[in-house]
Amino acid sequence: MKRSVLSVLVENESGVLARISGLFSRRGYNIESLTVGPSEQEGLSRMIIVTQDDVEQVKKQLNKLINVIKITDLSELPYVDRELALIKVSSKQNRAEIIEIADLFRSRIIDVAEDSLVVEVTGDSEKINAVIQLISPFGIKEVARTGSVALLRGKKFN
Fold this sequence. Notes:
Blueprint: E1 4-11, H1 16-27, E2 33-38, E3 44-51, H2 56-64, E4 68-73, E5 79-90, H3 95-104, E6 108-112, E7 116-123, H4 125-135, E8 140-145, E9 149-152
Antiparallel strand pairs: 1-3, 1-4, 2-3, 5-7, 5-8, 5-9, 6-7
């Protein structure tokens, strides 16, 4: 099934997130990732919603909500997206190998403890999944991921 990425500009008011996630729930759609943050316009927030479900009907329903200003289906247009992951890895014996993997993927070690390292990875989902797969044999203690943030691509220079 196709991955859908929606950029939804909403009024920054309480209850908006609950109404939007409830709309997905009522339709039986799963939200793969959801990120919300302030937009470039004061008083508005941008939600990036990623799902594997067909969202045509959901887009129509979202447009009916008062607090929704604009919906853009980024998956139909050229866009860039990034994710952030923090991965705590056991490092009692294999510290050099973990650092090498982090360097290979242009990631950073942001915390060093006696028995663990925290690796910061930014990139698309595939890159983060690849890092997790490579360092999992060392013993992943904890993973925190942001979900995708995305924007339309700008026009190319000629």
